[in-house]
Specification:
Shape of chain A: globular
Oligomer: homodimer
Helix content of chain A: 25-40%
CATH architecture of the largest domain in chain A: 4-Layer Sandwich
Number of strands of chain A: 20
Structural class of chain A: alpha/beta
Strand content of chain A: 5-15%
Radius of gyration of chain A: 28 Å
Chain lengths: 679, 679
C-alpha cells in the first residue's frame, strides 16, 4: 500500500466535509499525480449534483503569460476531473494585476494573452472557467483596452464581461490604460475584441441550473448605501442584482493594507445581505512590486454570513457549494476580527494587525526576490531595531542561509551594538561577519577634506557643523553591501529605513536608504517595536531579537550629541516617536491640518504633559523636515505597502518642488492685508 | 529727463503696434514703477475700444499660493491700469499644475486657494480676470475636487467653468484627484463649491461686446475630426462653438515634448478654422519637477492663422486684440516650424529639435533648483560626452560660478580625458578641481576583498569576473560629490546618465546614476552628440566642448577590454548607439515588437550591412538588458522630460517584477503544443 493510499485511507475516516477539504489539500501537495485521491474527491462531490465551484486564487508573475497560463490550465484540468460546475480565477488572470503602462508601449502582450485565451478555451469541457484577460477595444474612441473576463466552456468562449469601474487612486491606475465597459454583465463571444455595440443578450451566465452575475474587482466597491460618499455613479452589482442571479461573482485583485480586511468583510457581507444573494469573491494572491495581495477568497450566503474563505497569502483552489452549504473558513491573521468595528483613532496597540503586517512583508520580500530572479539578501546589522527587524523578516522570507548580516562598526559603535548584532545573527542562523569601516572612513574623510579645501577657495557657505562625517559612515556601509551584491550571484542589498524616519528625511542617500528592496519603509517606529516583540513571541524560535535591542532608545550611532557627550539619539534629533507617529497617522488617515493637530489632544499628551511651545516646535519641525524629504521619497527602493496610506511613490504622488507649501494656512483677514500691501 | 522717459521717447518713434509691445516689455522690466509708460500704453490701447486681452503666462511654484497669488494680483492690477477687457491665466493658476495627490492628503491647500480666490476677486474692477483654482465638489458621489477657473470682475466672482476632460496618461494623472465637470461652459457664481445641479444660465461670458467660450487644457484636445482615434466621447469646444462665441479661450498647462509643438499648432489652427472662431490659448510656463512647460501662449484667427504668440520658456503678459488684428508673434525655438508635417520616422537629424531640447532642459534645471531652494551644482567631469554636456547645461542654467566640476581620475583615466575635463571647465568658466580616487579605490577594494573572502566561506556563486572594480570607481566619485553637497550650502550633485545607457542599465547605482537631478536622462546618445555640436555652434562662447570629447567613441573608462587591451568602449559592451537609439525610438513611438523590428530595415542597416545573426544578437541583448533595468528606472533622480516618450517613472509605469515578459511572443501552434504538453 502506497504512502498516498495510506493518507487517503486516513482521510476517509474523517467526517464527509473534512474528507473533501483534506483530499483537496493532499492533491495540491501531490500535484496532478494523485488520480486515486482525485477519484475519491470526485465521488464525494458528485452527490451535490450542481453548485460545486472552485475559487482559484493564483499568484501570477506579471506579464509572464506562459507561467500564469500553466497555472490556469492545471486548475481547469483539475476542476474538470473532480467535476466542478465552474472554476473562477482572479482579475487579469493571464497577465497579472496591475499590468500598467506596459500594454500601451508593448501591445504584443495583449496579442499574446488573447492567443493564449483562445487556446485555453479549446481545452475546456463541462466545467466553466472564468478567466481574466486584457481585451482590445474596437471603438475608435477611448482607451485601447478593456479589463475583461471570459467564460470558457466546451472548447469555446461562451461570453465576455468587462470591468466598468476603474480605480484610479492610491496604488491603482486603471484609468491610464483601460476603457470602462459600456455595458454591465455578459456579452456574446463574437464581441471578443469586437464590441461594436451593446447586444441584448442575457446579462447572467447560466451554469448547471444556477444564474451567475459576474463583475470585476472595483465593480463591487461602489454600493451607495454602504459607502457615503461613494466614488462612481453606477453600481454594477446592483444592476446585476436586478436580474435575480443565484450567485454574484467578483474576480478581484485587491491588496491587503491596514483596516482593509475589516472594510472588505463588512462591505461584502452587506452586499450579499442587501441583494439576498450568494456572493463569491476570488482574489489574487502574492506580491507585485510594492503591492501584496492576500488571497483570502471567500463566499457569503444571502444572509451576509461568511460560509467559506480560502487561505491568506497562499495559492489555493478552494472548493465550495454555497447552495448546499459546503464550505470551510480558513483562518485569517489572528486579531483582525477583533477590530471589525473599531473607531478610527490613533493607538499604540498594534497587536490586532501584527500578524497581517508580518505576513504581508514576508510575502512582499519573497515574491519580489523570486519574481526578479534573486534569492539572497545582504544587510548591515547595526544592533539597532530597524536592521534587526529586517534581518528576521529576511530570514523568514528567504531562509536563514540566504541572508548575510554584516556588522560594520565605526569608532562610534558601542560594544553592546556589536554584540547585539552578533547575537541576533546567531539566533536567526543567518550568515554573519564583521567588516569595520575605520580604514575606509579615514581615507574617504581625508580625500573629502582635501577636496573641501579646494572647493572652499571658490565657494562660500561651508557648514560649520555638517552631516558629512555621519554620511561617510552610512555610505561606506552601503558601498560594502552593494559590493557583495556585485560580486556574488542572485544577491540584493537591503535598505533598512523605516517609515517614521523617511517622513523626517532621517536616512542617508546612497547610504542606509539605498538597497534593492526596503522591507519596512511603510512601518512606523512605534509599530516596529510592537512587531519586534510580536515576532519574538510568535516565531518558532522565540526571542531572536535580543531584549537589549528592543529596550534601548534608537540612535544611528553616527554622531555625538554635544549636550550629552554620548551618541546622538534619534528622538533628540527629531521628536518622541509616539508623537511623530501620531502626526503621520493623523495626516494620512484623517487628512488633518497643522492647526487641527495643534488643537487636538494627542495620545502622547494624555500621558505626558507638554506645553504649547513644545508642541508647536515639534509640529514645525515635522512639516519642515517632511517638506524637504520629498526627494528621498522619490528615490526610495521598492518596498511593501502595509499601512492604510503611505509615502511610497506608487501610492502617493507629490511633486518635489512643492516644498514651499504653507501647511498652516492663513485666515481671510491676513490674506486681505497681504494683497493690500502688494497693491 | 529720467532714463525711463528717454526710453519711452525712443519707443514713441516706432510704429504704433511696435510701441505697444515695446512699452509692455519695458514695463515688465521696470515692474509696476513705471506709471509714465503705463499711461502711454493705456492711451495707445484705448482707441481699440473693445477686445483688448492679456494672456498672462506665469511660472508658478507648486502649492505656494501666496507666491502665485502675488503674480496674479500684480498682473490684474496692471491689466486694469492699461484698460484691458480681460486677462487670462493658465490652468490651476493659484496652486500650479500638476498639484497631484497633495490635495487629497492636505485638503487645507484647497481651503486656502478658495480664500485667496475670494480675496483676489475683491480687487478686480472693470477688467475681467480668468483665474484657475481647485474647487470643492458638493456631491456625495465622485472625487472631491474640480479643476476650475473663475471669471472675476467688479469685486466679485462672475461665473465658474470646470474642466470636463481629465487627462490620465503619460505625465498626466488628473483622474486621480479631479471629478469631471457635469456641464460644459459657465455656471453662476453661487455654484462655487456648491454645484448641486446644472443651472440653465448662459454658457458663454459676455465681456465688453464679445462672447467668450472658456475651456481648460485637455478640453480642447479631443476634436474627433482632427484626432482619429480620439480619447473621449465629448468635445467641450464643439459644444461651446454651438453657442456662437466670438472667442474660444483655453486655460492650459501643457508640457513641451518632442513633436508636441507641431501637433499643438496644427490642432489649434484646425479648431479655430473649423469653428470659424478666434482661439486664445494661455499656457503655463516653467518646470514642475520633471515637466517643463514652454508657455508660447497664442491666438489664432477664424481662418486658423496664428496672429500672436508669447515668448517660449519665459514669463510674460502678452497683449492682443484679435478682433482688430493687434498681435505679435514672438519666435519659437528655431527649426520647429520645419518639421510641422514631417512623417514619423527615425532620423539622426535632430537639428530641428535641438534649440527646444536645450531650452527645455535649461528651464528644467533652473526651476528645479530655484523651487527646491538650491542654487549650486557639483558634477564629475570625466572628459566624456555625458558629463561635458551636463556641465554646459548647468553653467547656462545656474551661471558658471555656481557650478563645480570635479575631475576624479582613476588609474584607467587617460591623460586626454583629464585634459578634456580641464579644458571644458576653462571654456565654461566653471569652478574646477581634481580629486584622484586612487587612495579611496585601494582602501575600499582592500576592505571589499577581505569581506568577499569572508562571504565566500558561506556563499557560492562568486563571479569570476565581476563589475565590482568598475562600481567602486563610480561609487567613490559619487561619494565625493555627495560629500560636497553635504558640506556646502545650497548645492546638489548631478547624475549624468543618458537615456540610451539607462535603457541598457549601463549606469552604476549609488554611482553615476545617483544625484539630486539628472539633466540628460531623457536624451539618447546620438541626440547628445548632436546637442553638443549645436551648443558649440550656438552659444555665445563657441566650442566650449573640446572637439576631442565629441570625436572620441564613448566609454566609461571603468574597465579594460581583454580583446583590445584598451579601456572598454560602451558600444563594445552594448551595441552601436545608432542601432540602440533606433530600437528605443521604435518602441516608444511606434510600439513595435521584437519581430516587427527584426523584419524592418533600420537606418543603420541602410549604411552598414549587418547579418541577421548580428541583428538578433543586438535585439536579444536590448530586451534582456532593458528587462533588468526597470529597478534602475524606479530610483532615477528627477530629470526633464524631453522626448515624446520616456522611461521617467512619472511618465511611464512598469512594475519591476515584469522582467519575465516574453517580448517575442509565440504563434498559436506553439501555444497549443505547450498546453498539450501540460495536460
Amino acid at each position: 500500500m502506497s504512502d498516498l493510499s495510506r493518507k487517503i485511507d486516513e482521510i476517509k475516516k474523517l467526517p464527509e466535509k473534512e474528507q473533501i477539504y483534506s483530499l483537496n489539500e493532499l492533491i495540491a501537495q501531490e500535484g496532478v499525480d494523485a488520480p486515486e485521491a482525485i477519484k475519491e474527491l470526485k465521488q464525494l462531490l458528485a452527490p451535490y449534483g450542481y453548485g460545486n465551484i472552485g475559487l482559484a486564487q493564483i499568484n501570477p508573475i506579471l506579464g509572464d503569460i506562459k507561467y500564469n497560463a500553466q497555472k490556469v490550465v492545471k486548475y481547469i484540468s483539475y476542476a474538470e476531473k473532480i467535476g466542478l460546475d465552474v472554476i473562477i480565477f482572479p482579475e487579469l488572470t493571464l497577465v497579472g494585476y496591475p499590468i500598467e503602462d506596459i500594454i500601451d508601449r508593448h501591445p504584443i502582450i495583449v496579442e499574446e494573452n488573447i492567443k493564449w485565451l483562445n487556446e485555453i478555451a479549446k481545452i475546456t469541457k463541462q466545467t466553466r472557467a472564468i478567466v481574466g484577460f486584457i481585451e482590445k477595444v474596437k471603438s475608435q474612441t477611448g482607451r485601447r483596452y478593456y479589463n475583461s473576463v471570459a467564460i470558457l466552456a466546451e472548447g469555446k468562449i461562451e461570453s465576455i464581461v468587462r470591468k466598468t469601474l476603474l480605480p484610479t487612486y492610491s496604488e491603482f491606475y486603471d484609468s491610464r490604460y483601460f476603457e470602462p465597459s459600456p455595458v454591465i454583465g455578459n456579452q456574446p463571444p463574437e464581441t471578443l475584441c469586437n464590441l461594436d455595440k451593446v447586444y441584448d443578450s442575457p446579462k447572467l451566465s447560466t451554469i448547471n441550473k444556477l444564474k451567475y452575475g459576474i463583475t470585476i474587482c472595483e465593480d463591487c466597491w461602489n454600493n451607495s448605501d454602504f459607502f457615503v460618499p461613494n466614488l462612481y455613479k453606477v453600481d454594477p452589482v446592483k444592476e446585476l442584482a436586478k436580474e435575480f442571479p443565484d450567485i454574484l461573482v467578483n474576480c478581484s485583485a485587491s491588496p491587503t493594507r491596514t483596516k482593509k480586511e475589516q472594510l472588505k468583510h463588512n462591505m461584502l457581507s452587506y452586499i450579499s445581505r442587501q441583494h439576498k444573494t450568494i456572493f463569491i469573491y476570488v482574489n489574487q494572491v502574492g506580491a507585485i512590486d510594492n503591492i501584496s495581495f492576500d488571497g483570502s477568497s471567500r463566499v457569503y450566503n444571502p444572509r451576509g454570513e461568511l460560509i467559506a474563505r480560502a487561505k491568506s497569502f497562499e495559492e489555493q483552489l478552494l472548493i465550495v457549494n454555497p447552495i448546499k452549504g459546503l464550505g470551510k473558513i480558513y483562518p485569517l491573521a489572528s486579531g483582525l476580527e477583533k477590530t471589525l468595528r473599531e473607531p478610527k483613532i490613533f493607538t499604540l496597540d498594534y497587536e490586532p494587525d501584527l500578524e497581517r503586517t508580518y505576513k504581508t512583508i514576508i510575502q512582499g520580500i519573497r515574491d519580489y526576490f523570486k519574481k526578479t530572479g534573486f534569492r539572497r539578501a545582504v544587510l548591515g546589522l547595526s544592533g539597532g531595531l530597524d536592521s534587526s527587524v529586517c534581518a528576521v523578516l529576511l530570514a523568514d522570507a528567504l531562509l536563514p542561509q540566504n541572508v548575510f548580516g554584516v556588522s560594520m562598526p565605526s569608532k562610534l559603535t558601542s560594544d553592546e551594538s556589536k554584540n547585539d548584532a552578533k547575537e541576533l545573527a546567531n539566533n536567526l542562523g543567518i550568515n554573519f561577519t564583521q567588516a569595520p569601516i575605520k580604514n575606509m572612513y579615514d581615507v574617504i574623510n581625508t580625500s573629502l577634506q582635501e577636496l573641501f579645501d579646494q572647493v572652499e577657495q571658490k565657494w562660500d557657505n561651508r557648514y560649520k557643523k555638517s552631516f558629512t562625517p555621519d554620511n561617510i559612515q552610512a555610505r561606506s556601509r552601503a558601498m560594502l553591501l552593494w559590493g557583495i551584491s556585485n560580486e556574488f550571484g542572485s544577491c540584493l542589498p537591503i535598505a533598512t529605513s523605516d517609515k517614521s524616519e523617511l517622513y523626517m528625511g532621517y536616512a542617508t542617500i546612497n547610504g542606509d536608504m539605498s538597497g534593492g528592496f526596503a522591507p519596512i519603509a511603510d512601518v512606523t517606529k512605534t509599530k516596529l517595536f510592537a512587531l519586534a516583540r510580536w515576532m519574538n513571541k510568535n516565531r518558532d524560535i522565540k526571542n531572536a531579537i535580543p531584549e537589549s535591542v528592543i529596550a534601548k532608545r534608537p540612535g544611528a550611532e553616527l554622531a555625538i550629541n554635544p549636550k550629552t557627550g554620548k551618541p546622538l539619539l534619534a528622538e533628540e534629533a527629531l521628536m518622541p516617536y509616539e508623537f511623530l507617529d501620531e502626526v503621520i497617522w493623523r495626516i494620512e488617515n484623517k487628512h488633518e491640518s497643522y492647526n487641527e493637530m495643534l488643537n487636538s489632544q494627542f495620545l502622547y499628551e494624555k500621558e505626558k504633559s507638554i506645553d504649547l511651545t513644545q508642541k508647536i516646535e515639534w509640529l514645525d519641525k515635522f512639516y519642515r523636515r517632511m517638506s524637504t524629504s520629498l526627494y528621498k521619497w522619490s528615490i526610495l527602493p521598492p518596498s511593501v505597502l502595509v499601512d492604510a496610506r503611505s509615502i511610497n511613490k506608487n501610492d502617493y504622488r507629490q511633486p518635489i518642488t512643492s516644498s514651499h507649501i504653507d501647511y498652516k494656512g492663513l485666515v481671510e483677514e491676513e490674506i486681505k492685508n497681504i494683497i493690500a500691501d502688494w497693491l
